[in-house]
Amino acid sequence: MFGLTLTMAARLAPSPDRIASSISIMLNGLMSGAVLGLPISHAVATTWNRMIGT
């Protein structure tokens, strides 16, 4: 997954000078999604289980 996203970020960079910047932005988003996604998914699952009653 990292290899594909790194390649896409490098190819979508507007110029060769901005490749490192675009890769860092992509990795920042990927890591932020992982860090924020875990507690949010846990809260949703907990709420869902309370609503169902299990």
Please, could you describe this protein's structure?
- The chain is mostly helical and 54 residues long.
- 83% of the residues lie in helices and 0% in strands.
- The protein is built from 2 helices and no strands.
- Helix 1 crosses helix 2.
- The radius of gyration is 17 Å and the shape is rod-shaped.
- The N and C termini lie far apart (35 Å).
- The mean pLDDT is 91.
What's the gist of this structure?
The chain has 54 residues and is mainly alpha-helical.
How are the SSEs ordered, and which strands pair?
Elements: H1 2-12, H2 19-52
Helix pairs in contact: 1-2
The count of β-strands is 0
The percent range for strand residues is under 5%
Assembly level = single chain
User: How would you describe the shape?
Assistant: rod-shaped
As residue ranges, the low-confidence spans are none
Query: What is the count of DSSP helices, taking H or I runs of 4+ residues?
Result: 2
SS class = mainly alpha
Averaging pLDDT over every residue, what do you get? 91
Alpha carbon gyration radius: 17 Å
Sheet with the most strands, sense and barrel status? none
Helix content: over 70%
Distance N terminus to C terminus? 35 Å
Order of helices and strands: HH
Features:
54 residues; mainly alpha; rod-shaped
